[in-house]
Amino acid sequence: MDIDDTLTTEGKMTGEAFSALWRLKEAGLVVIPVTGRPAGWCDMIAREWPCDGVVGENGALVFYEKNHVLKQIFHPNAVRNEHPTLLAIKERVLKEVPGTRLAKDQPYRMFDIAIDFAEEEPILPLSEAEKIKTIALDEGAKRGETVSAKISSIHVNIWMGAYSKLDMSRRFLNEHFGWNESTELSQVVFVGDSPNDEPMFEHFPMAAAVANINKYKHLMHHLPGFIASKECGAGFTEIAKKILNHE
After folding, report:
1. CB 3.0–4.6 Å: which of 23, 63, 198, 200 could bond 42 by disulfide?
2. What share of the chain is helix, strand, coil (3-state, %, to 5)?
3. What digits encode the pLDDT tens for the residues 163-220?
4. Residue ranges, CATH 3.90.1070.10, the chain
5. The overall pTM is greater than 0.90
6. What CATH number was assigned to the domain covering residues 84-160?
7. Measured on CA atoms in the order 211, 214, 215, 220, is the torsion positive or negative?
């Protein structure tokens, strides 16, 4: 599951959403947050949440515990975020899109640049997030570099290298849990909320979303098969109950 605006509500993890995570874990399910949040956050999540690992920075890395020791996997295509192309994109965005700023969690990131358009004030419209994405892709094209830019509910995440949430999630499930995609695809339920989750929605037939996905429908080509009636953490709790009740 995604974290921001999927597990959280107005930036906070609710008691019911965190309890839902615990119930899923205690039921024997593999629980994996899949997020655009930074490596620094993933260190804490892997150690302290009821989960089997966390995919972070939109697929650049996985942190997980084994025998109470933190383990790390880094995608071979990931490029560190001090690369000149990423720095040039950052400068253009901050100059050309008024009101944008680096996400406050940027110091804890290893591979991407996160531009805040809606986590803190001023809250900018989605049209400004689309401008940020366009600048990133344009700058990458001019420099002949592979640049990805994804819009979440709060940030535009920009990185170099061919990888994604989906790519790293599949790798982690296969290598560490013996998951066979050809026969067990429907055993995976992904829950998300925004356009950067679209590859997961497209790939997993059992994908679901919380109700706030509806505000992004015009930006997406692939929606999940199930959308909860409630938004954010309450929507995640609704979906978790359906899974646990075999609905």
Report:
1. 63
2. 45, 15, 40
3. 999 999 999 999 999 999 999 999 999 999 999 999 999 999 999 999 999 999 999 9
4. 84-160
5. yes
6. 3.90.1070.10
7. positive
